[in-house]
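User: Quick sanity check before I run a bigger batch. Here is a single chain. Can you write out its predicted 3D structure?
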Amino acid sequence: MVLLRYKIIVLFLSYNVILAKEYSSFKETEEKLKNEYFVPVENWKYSEGAGWREPTVFVPIFVRNKAHALPYFLKCLYDLNYPKKRLSLWIVTDHNSDNSSQILEKWTNTVKHEYHDLVFEKPDTEWFYKEQKGNLHWPEERHIKMLQLRQQALEKARKMWSDFILYLDADNMLINPHTLQHLISRDLTIVAPMLTTIASYANFWADQDENGYYKRADNYFEIRNRETVGVFEVPMVHSTFLVNLVARKSRKLRFWPLHEDYYLLVDDIIVFSIHAKLADIPLYIDNTHIYGCMPIPLKHDQSLREEVETFTHFIMEIMTEPPVGIGIEIQPVDYLKPVFHNTSLGFDKIFMINLERREDRYYRMSKALELQGIEFTHFKAVDSKTLNTTYLKHMGIDMLPGYVDPYRERTLTRGEIGCFLSHYFIWQEVVKNKLDQVIVFEDDLRFEISFNRRLKNVMQEIEDAKLEWDLIYIGRKRMQIKEPEKSVPDCPLLVEADYSYWTLAYILSNSGAQKLLAGKPLHRMVPVDEYLPIMFNKHPIEKYMTPFEKRDLKAFSVNPLLIYPTHYTGQINYFSDTETSSIWEDVHASKEEL
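Assistant: Done. Predicted structure follows.
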């Protein structure tokens, strides 16, 4: 027995050494990715000691209702690894219904002495244009105003004898500090750094129809997904692009007035592409490096609130490692940090389950919750690496006799026990502290856009319908899909939950916690995502349900779901903390040793 205890101690120490090497913090991972992605220009002829001064760059920035994006955008702009004394900024903001002007004024007053020139203009205007139907609507007058501003910027840059002009939208994030050097080194008249989104959208088109609009092209996704890497001629670049004013052809470029041969609708990006073509200037997109990202533009009939929510979602998603994002946090300017008002979303408590050793997941998840203003309690998960037979015996834990995973044909694993216990202890806390309703989050999930608002709508719907419920999935994997789940009367956002996997996120009532505990699952344990369907009588294997006599958990699911996993099995950077070894195999081996 002494020998066995000694082996257990050695095993625990070995695990700690392995874990220290296996997981790095989010910040260590981020630094590694930055070193990998953000590579300086080789043989940059303007580098220190080369005898050349960097080209001068004029940067016009036109801002309207971007208060939500500006703290992040301005940090990326400031962090560009380019001598600020070779940069001139012209910032214009108008037609605002938010506090963009105040943010810009504070920033420009703080940094203006660092740049060669920084001019900030805020003409007094109404928030709307004459024909405007909403904040995101673009009537022709607004397109014309943008074209006129870009033309003014071009003329200012030429008068200042600037070598380049960098047009930059105020919600485009140039997270690569070497972006300007790379673009300048291309030696092209017009070139854009490819900026990606969390969807298939990017700041270029691979084809254009006869009316000047986007046309699907076979090579779009090859470029967008960087399956082929290089600098590609395309019919359209927009949002962020560099114009070489030293190039002879650039003298013919103009944004306004319209060229005498222009015949299409007045749309600022279409006008630009056609004017470039009429000036015989090819447009290029550069995807040789990861340069940055941008939020998905919304439809013209959507609201500013939806744009803010979409941007928040974008900032959260970009932190998620590939293939969703790039694994880098976009930081705001310190003194412009948004103020988040903490909310419990109407729940008594919001739990976030996280293994202490997974600092990377805690960091990402806590930031995602912070960005949404969600107040949470960090619930330290039961670490499967620390489980042993003595602990299991003390807790009265045993596997359900005859249990075999329906899909993997294996017994209950060490990780599944740790996961079950983490949820079980939360159920106990709910009952002990008489909490009416709580949310349980795991730490490897992604939020849908407008999560807070959409969840509040669900809960309001439930309250109005006076629905009796115990558990509501807000993230799950539906299994054995044969027919649609039953809809819930007066609750169009809910369905009656069928056999489901994953405990990514769910809402639990006090009655639900009591029922789950009353099932006395510890001495007949199955994975927690198998136990829940058993308790609402929807497990497809009858022999697993039979030992649990009372299976009356009232379970529903939000439809469509509001939570998804960060990664799916087989994707890049997918890793499961659900340790796959079986503790019962260890028990058997230990008995043989004794």
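The longest strand covers residues 500-509.

User: Great, the batch can go ahead then.
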